[in-house]
TrEMBL record:
<dbReference type="GO" id="GO:0004497">
    <property type="term" value="F:monooxygenase activity"/>
</dbReference>
<dbReference type="InterPro" id="IPR002938">
    <property type="entry name" value="FAD-bd"/>
</dbReference>
<dbReference type="InterPro" id="IPR036188">
    <property type="entry name" value="FAD/NAD-bd_sf"/>
</dbReference>
<feature type="domain" description="FAD-binding">
    <location>
        <begin position="3"/>
        <end position="311"/>
    </location>
</feature>
<dbReference type="Pfam" id="PF01494">
    <property type="entry name" value="FAD_binding_3"/>
</dbReference>
<protein>
    <submittedName>
        <fullName>FAD-dependent monooxygenase</fullName>
    </submittedName>
</protein>
<keyword id="KW-0503">Monooxygenase</keyword>
<dbReference type="InterPro" id="IPR051704">
    <property type="entry name" value="FAD_aromatic-hydroxylase"/>
</dbReference>
<keyword id="KW-0560">Oxidoreductase</keyword>
Amino acid sequence: MRAIIIGAGIAGLAAALRLHQAGWETLVVERAPQRRGGGYGVTFGGIGYDGAERMGILPELRRRAFVTRELVYRKPSGERRFALSGETIAATMGRKSFTILRGDIEAVLYEAVAEHTTIRFGTTLTAVEQDTDEVRVTLSDGRTERADLLIGADGLHSATRALVFGPEEDYRLDLGHRVAVYMLKERPEGLPAGTTGSISAGGRTFALMSVGDGRTAAFFGYRTDGGRAGTSLEELGEIYGDMGWLVPQALDGLRTAESVYFDSISQMVVDRWSRGRVVLLGDAAWCVTLFAGYGSSLAVGGADRLGAALERHGGDVPAALAEWEAELRPEVEKKQRLGRRVKGVYAPRNPLVLELTQLPLRLSAWGPVRRLVERKFQLAG
């Protein structure tokens, strides 16, 4: 059996690895000229943790995880407001979860599968045809490929989805925010190793995260539902220009950054994830968004469960896809609902609403409550 996978991100590489383990031949097609790295930190757990364990990559993922020793919330001027200790942060996470860069998840998957698949970088999907026996694709390099299954793991702006399911606007739910993320060339002196600093004010959030191995990720997230069109990186200077601390340094770094992720925050609400022998996976199918904080876990866990369904059904690909979706969709829709709820209180413009949303965090940082939370974590461990 053979699968063509569009997209060499987390979902695509996880699918290639899981299908290889199921005895499939795979071809991965990636539009970028080379593998990308970086990205923001995510909490990895749930079905992703279980899937990574079954695929044998969990030890390496855990090795690359990073621990935040302190999370400092600051005023727009940079003045310290309150902080959460590493123990308190850990107490909010389950034992089967950890924090890791999205790019490091991708790197682990790539290293695990690179010798078992063919990856064509700098190539895109241009046409898809299928019948009951096979799917045929045309690529931008002029080649035509045939397979038993086509997996569209090509992200929020999926070409697979556009060609087979219809235009993006038919499925995209804009959540009224925009995000920019990049890796700084070096950790600023004002950010101690192993710490994160965050500022929220006026519908904007900024964070600097020390993520291990001397690396630092800069994160800008802001509302676009009040007249901000969110069309170019240049607008970040105007939006964040009045903030202090390390914000000016992070804005300067944007000019020379090797790679910047800059996009709107949107969900994909797709009523059916497969058509015939074509299936969508990861952000191309759902994109629960960073508000739900579960996208990487769903990508890996979804790929694992897809491989398991294909193993159970042998050559009956449509039956496997139907079973896989029926099993996974409730989890995805639950996370999408969470994302839509969280977006309403993320980076609020109203200072009072901001205070109310941060009140539980401030209580967690208060001595008696902090010790109670940390004690609970010690007992759970």
